[in-house]
Amino acid sequence: MDLDLGRDELIFIGAALGMLRWLDERLPPGAVVLVEEPDVIHRRGVAALAADLPVVSRVVPAEYQTGVDVDALLAREPRLAAARLVVPGIEYAVPAAARLADRLGLPGAGPEAAEIFADKHRMRQVAAGAGLPNPAYELVGTPERAAAFAERFGGRCVLKPTRRSGSLGVQLITEPAAIASAWATTATPEEPPEATDRGLPTEVLVEQLVVGPEHSVELLVTDGEVCFANVTDKRVLPGPRPVETGHTVPSALPPAARAELVQVASRLAAAAGFRTGVLHSEWIVADGVPTLVECAARLPGDMITALVSVAYDCGFIPAYLRLLRGERPALPARPAGAAAVEFLLAPPGTVTAVTGVRAALRAPGVLSAQVDVAVGDTLGEVVSSARRSGLVLAWGDDPAEATRAARHAAGLVEISVG
């Protein structure tokens, strides 16, 4: 990947170690300045981790997750003004990255659009104003108000924190009486390890429960114009915690249905005034109508970038970085094949054995298999994406073949607990 970057010319906000390692393999030494919260640097040992990555020239401590004073940051760190692109590494860095890019005159999401997609309630308001299919929703301050909302929709609803990712705090409620005991999980959700110790302010959004197959749309946008679009099929856990269990690229939907999803995702981008970058929106198709679930103005997680790269035989992340450099990369309009990921979901308990990884790696179509837990680890219930135990990535000639390959290989891996 030749981005022609010199020292300190890429500002990366938020220590997403997987992405930093990816950059370390592809960019020249010293190209990246890493900006991170001071308490996160200390708690996670970020300085030591960055020291092992030649691509990182230095680590700049800055409070950004609860609002950033860009002018004060640049006054304290004037060398940041030499950057040629600004990249958010984590969900909670999206607004700060957009503000800094805007201040430096560089391509980015735009401060207003970044704030919209960082707040699920604001996103709902923008989508509703644009006439996009939205479930009924309400910002609520008490479990009683949430229960009253649920009663209006057959006793069922979804509780969501307005500012979290990775399914943290998201709950599907089927009985209003369950809301009182479920309230704290959403109102004060688990803090992810990348979050500042100051806490991430959030509110509770209650939504009408929509049922149907789930999909995501990945858009690359330059100056408000969509230049690449993909539709992904999603698999989620049944029950009250809808954690994603797998994805397939491209979607197996008919062309007209895929085109409709791209169209509504593009309308959402336009309604928010999104400028340049990547948008990852999620939709449930209920009674044939794509209904918005949520949207993030950052690279998708869950290996979706790898799936797109394999299926379209392209470099999705390099294309995204080129957009942020002000270029317009050429990407294939149609996939050359398909790719799928299936996540490993171990039951709660203490891990006593892990077997079958070699068999999974030898299975037809498998590109990679990884287990993220070890003997002796204590595992809890899978209530967010961070609680999954590993994954299998596979390819195929079409979505069905790729999905079968990933699911078959994942079934060969056994994580025993006691």
UniProtKB/TrEMBL annotation:
Entry keyword set: ATP-binding, Ligase, Nucleotide-binding
Gene Ontology MF: a single term: metal ion binding
Keyword Transferase set for record: no
The keyword ATP-binding belongs to this UniProt entry's keyword annotation: yes
SMART domains reported for this sequence: GARS_A (SM01209)
InterPro entries, A to Z: ATP-dep_AA_Ligase, ATP-grasp, ATP_grasp_subdomain_1, LAL_C2
ATP-grasp domain sequence ranges: 124-325
Name of the protein this chain belongs to: Biotin carboxylase
Organism: Micromonospora purpureochromogenes
